Amino acid sequence: MTKTTPPATSNYAATDADIWQGRIDAEDGEAGMRFHQKVTLIDDDEQLTNQAGVVLLGFACDEGVKRNKGRVGAVQAPDIIRKALANTAWHHDNATNTSTFVDAGNIYCSDTDLAASQKELANYVETALNKQNKVMVLGGGHEIAWGTFQGLAQHFQTTKVNKPKIGIINFDAHFDLRTYSTDGQAFPTSSGTPFNQIAKHCQQLGWEFNYACLGVSRASNTQALFTLADQLGVHYREDHQLASYHLAERIEELTAFIDNVDHLYLTIDIDVFSASTAPGVSAPAARGVNYESVEALLQPIFNAKNSAGQAKLIIADLAEYNPNFDIDNQTARLAARLTWDITRAMFK
Ligand SMILES: N=CN[C@@H](CCC(=O)O)C(=O)O
Ligand SMILES: [Mn+2]
Ligand SMILES: [Mn+2]
Description:
Layout (H helix, E strand, L loop, with lengths): L11 E2 L21 H4 E3 L11 E8 L2 H5 L9 H10 L13 E9 L5 H17 L3 E6 L4 H15 L7 E6 L22 H12 L4 E7 L6 H9 L3 E4 L8 H13 L3 E7 L21 H13 L9 E7 L10 H18 L1
Parallel strand pairs: 2-4, 3-4, 3-5, 5-10, 6-7, 6-9, 7-8, 9-10
Antiparallel strand pairs: 1-4
Helix pairs in contact: 3-10, 4-5, 5-6, 8-9
The site of one manganese (II) ion (MN) has 7 residues, from loops.
């Protein structure tokens, strides 16, 4: 059984080493390595070194989904995705490059102070980015995005990047642009509000809000949300528009979106996939998008480079995996495969 409650004194806990277990092919030496044999576990951000590689963090949180009237269970997700990732093959070292994969542990979520947990996640993300690592965060509900983005914003403020041009690319059946009240009472922030929070934050900072939401289900988002998306200039495409016969056009549009920004934050809500592919989520998609379409659209994100030749993609997260509704761990395997794909791109 994995841990589901925060330690008494802090929202942070290192990952249990026994989560990272898998097959060992000793006969193949270095060429037979898997993630569980390559991961470096740390229990303090002081242990993060400069340019270590890819830093994995968990945001173990049910509170956003609970507040959004959804089905809870995502708190268990980070450790279960780690278990599914543990046995996957390691392909990241070569003659000129040794890549480090650091598991920095979980930020747990207090059910009384979601904002404090998001801030704790943000602070850890900022530290990892300041030390020139790429960051991969495993949720939790989509309230993870408010923590991830704040960390990214703090990083640019600390490193004195003036008005960074950040592109946020969200694969999701939902906009997650819901309205919230500033008193936090009438309409609290939740898993349904993060991109509205980010839009307001960008406005306050005088930064552009470049948000692409791919896979939106018109049946699952009200007119109010479409209107707000239009007002905010969101680049959105619906689930049916991501079918294979539309992909060439989608890739062209997404490439134009990417060309217009300098840094990319990728966020994938597992409920973008059809329920038959991803049953383990709070809000399963009747239609959804297939893996091949998402995979094709990930390529321009993975390949994007800035003028200095550096990868634009510096941070990513996965949200909404809910093991309570999974079937034979198939959604966990999907989440692990996405983590594998993303971290592979980050190592290159
Ligand atoms: N992050 C989740 N967002 C969805 C959930 C929809 C539902 O529970 O039906 C939303 O708020 O729109
Ligand atoms: Mn979402
Ligand atoms: Mn969603």
